[in-house]
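Throughout our pipeline, every protein is held as a single compact record rather than as scattered files. The remainder of this section carries one protein's record, kept here as part of the documentation.

===
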Amino acid sequence: MSEPQEIVETRGDDRVDLLATDTNGDGKPDVWVADTDGDGKADLFQFDTNNDGKVDITMVDLDQDGNPDTIVDGDGGLPPAV
């Protein structure tokens, strides 16, 4: 049984994936970028760093200034739909 992951605060309660891409050519997404408040700007960034298809690092940019305000291990309670 895995341990519960830290749940991160985002700008809103919705999730619209703006980007889900495969950067290493294995056919599975390993970078996800999402908008959580409906303004069309990215504020949630997630990365699969060990190629298992699951989020390993989550970063949230609450003020959308390009610098993450929160960085946690795992999906931060916000698994991607893809």
About this structure: The CA atoms of residues 55 and 69 lie 18 Å apart. The longest strand covers residues 16-21. The chain has no helices and five strands.
